[in-house]
Specification:
InterPro entries: PPM-type-like_dom_sf (IPR036457), PPM-type_phosphatase-like_dom (IPR001932). This is Protein phosphatase. It comes from Amycolatopsis thermoflava. With about 240 residues, this protein is α+β, with helices and mostly antiparallel strands. The protein has a single domain, classed as Phosphatase 2c, domain 1. It has 6 helices and 10 strands.
């Protein structure tokens, strides 16, 4: 359990699903001198160990960047670390609590949602070919949903997504193995049940027959809501 002054409680859950490798990764780090927290969730591109390594390196690097520098700095640091690897790529979302809300940065199709105890509000916008065509009034093909237009290895700084959630809220980070199986309404329904959190979402994905890795990280800034049981996060040191 993590409950520092002005810091959220968080929980994570992940499942490999039918894939050969679990290429999703999560990390969180609390600065002992400031109490500031950084959260990160990455989804490796592909079903290989190099994809899993890229995701692990990305989140481990991102959460070590001081929250005061902001998510863009965390994304840039993760990019340098992934580019130093011989192979592998991933998509990444980073979030830092600030002023009762969150600052979020991302590349690719991982997502962040604000949770008010009843409903979810999507903070990110997918960097996919499908979203690119939707934004231009065209109907994408189903395959385009899985083609990302930015990634940690390839994105230019001006392509980093950024958003702010204002006001007290919970935070949900998901890989596409969660939000492409469960609708936002279905996720909210699961989260309304006391003690349900990231684990409930991943369990629901498995029950629905998801075909991808599924990972969720749930953080809560509202002390009136039930505590979340925390799954220990692995410590990864970039090579």
């Amino acid at each position: 359990m993590h409950r520092l002054t002005s810091s959220p409680v968080w929980a994570t859950a992940t499942a490999r699903g039918p894939r050969s490798v679990n290429a999703d990764a999560t990390a969180a780090y609390t600065d002992p001198s400031t109490g500031e927290v950084v959260f990160a969730l990455a989804d490796g591109v592909g079903d290989e160990q190099s994809a899993a390594r890229a995701a692990q390196v990305a989140v481990a690097t991102a959460v070590q960047v001081p929250a005061s520098q902001g998510p863009a700095a965390a994304l840039a640091a993760a990019q340098r670390a992934v580019r130093a690897e011989p192979a592998g790529d991933c998509v990444l979302v980073v979030a830092t609590p600030v002023d009762g809300g969150y600052r979020v940065g991302w590349v690719g199709d991982v997502r962040a949602y604000a949770w008010d105890g009843d409903s979810l509000r999507q903070l990110t916008r997918d960097h996919t070919l499908a979203q690119y065509f939707r934004d231009r009034g065209q109907v994408p093909t189903p395959r385009m949903e899985h083609l990302v237009t930015t990634s940690v290895r390839t994105a230019r700084p001006e392509e980093f997504g950024h958003a702010v959630a204002v006001g007290p809220a919970g935070l949900l980070l998901t890989s596409d193995g969660v939000h492409k199986v469960l609708t936002r309404a279905a996720m909210a329904e699961l989260l309304r049940v006391p003690s349900n959190s990231a684990h409930a979402l991943v369990d629901a994905v498995l029950a629905a027959g998801g075909h991808d890795n599924a990972t969720a990280l749930m953080a809560d800034l509202a002390p009136a809501l039930p505590d979340l049981t925390t799954t220990p996060l692995p410590t990864v040191t970039p090579a």
